[in-house]
Amino acid sequence: MPLGTYKEALSAKATDSKITDVSQDGGIVSALLCYALDEGILEGAVVAGTHDDDWRPIPTVVTSSDEVIAAAGTKYSMSPTLSAIKEATRQYGIEKLGIVATPCQVQGLRKAQAYPFARFVADKIKLIVGIYCMENFPMASLDTFATAKLGFDSLQDASKMDIGKGKFWLTKDGEDSGLAIKETHGYEQAGCNICMDYVAEWADVSTGSVGSPDGWSTVLTRTDAGETVFKAAVDAGLIETKPMDDVKPGLGLLEKLASGKKDKNGKERERRAKMGLPLPVEY
Q1: What does the pLDDT look like over 198-222, one tens digit per residue?
Q2: Of the given ranges (5-14, 92-101, 162-171, 249-258), which has the lowest mean pLDDT?
Q3: For residues 159 and 157, what is the distance between their CA atoms, to the nearest angstrom?
Q4: How many CB atoms sit inside 10 A of residue 51's CB?
Q5: 169-174 contacts: CB < 8 A, separation 24 or more?
Q6: Are 46 and 88 in contact (CB under 8 A)?
Q7: Residue 268 CA to chain centroid, in angstroms?
Q8: Strand blocks (E) in the chain
Q9: Theoretical Cys-Cys bridge with 168: which of 132, 164, 179, 208, CB 3.0 to 4.6 Å?
C-alpha cells in the first residue's frame, strides 16, 4: 500500500480566513492545532517556526491559536523539531502535546514511544500531524534557488515558498517565480534519497496538497486519535471537506508519487547496501 494504513481520505480546507490567508494549501495543520488548543485537547504543540525573515525554521512551542497562525506556512529546510519536545514537556509543563513533523521525524517519534527509556516524554505526545514530504533542502540550497536560479538578491526577499505543479515557487511582492523541480535534484538533503515514506504513514493525521485542487489539502486520517480530532474540527465548522472521488487530480496522483518515491529510493538503498554503506532501520 503506497499510502500506508488509513481510515479515510478526504479533500479539506480550513474555513477561517485568518488561517487560510497565511497557511499553505488548505490550512489543515493550522486548523487542527487551533481547534485542539482552543478545546483543551492539547495544551501545546511543537511546530517549525521561522526566525525573522531568513526562512530558517526554528522549533517553536505554541500554546495558543494566535501562536499557531503566526508560525503557519511551509518551510523547505529541515527543522530540528524533535529537539523541542523536552522543552515543551519540562519547561512548559505540557502534558498533552501535539507535534507537526515530516515522515522521517514521525518514524523517530514512534520509535521513541516504543522504547521504555524515552516514554516518560514521548507518551505526552497526543497528536502527530504528518506532512507529505518528497525531499528537504539545506538552507544553502534554498539560497542558491533564490539567487542563482531565480535572480533574487536574497532569499530574505521571498514572502512565501511552495512546491506545486512541478515547480519550486518563491513569492516576492505578490509575484510568483517558479523553478522546475528537475533543477532542484541534487540539492536535497542526502538522507532524503533513501527515505521510503512520502505521506507520513505513521502519523495520526497526514496532510498535503497533492491530489486536491488549489487551496485545498488531501487528508488521511490514520489512527483513532487522528480521526477523532479531525472529525470534531469538521463538526465544529472549522474545516470543510469533500470526498476524494469528487475532486481532481484525485487520490491516484498521491498514490503515484508515493509509489515513485518508494521505487526510486528503494533502488538507491539497494545501491548503498551493495557498497556496504549503513542504512536506517525502518519502523
Answers
A1: 999 999 999 999 999 999 999 999 9
A2: 162-171
A3: 7
A4: 10
A5: 170/145, 170/146
A6: yes
A7: 23
A8: 8-14, 44-50, 57-62, 97-101, 125-131, 160-164, 167-172, 175-180, 205-208, 217-221, 239-243
A9: 179
Lowest-confidence segment of 101-105, 108-112, 232-236, 238-242 by average pLDDT: 108-112
Q: How far is CA 245 from CA 5, 149, 230, 250, 255, in A?
A: 19, 38, 19, 7, 14
Q: How far apart are CA 179 and CA 271, in angstroms?
A: 29
Given a contact cutoff of 8 angstroms between Cβ atoms, the answer to whether 63 and 44 are in contact is yes
- Give a three-class secondary structure readout of 32-47: HHHHHHHCCCCCEEEE
Distance of CA 149 to the CA centre of its chain: 25
pLDDT band at 117 (very low <50, low <70, confident <90, very high): low
CA separation for the pair 70, 259 (Å, rounded): 34
From CA 184, how far away is CA 167, in angstroms rounded? 9
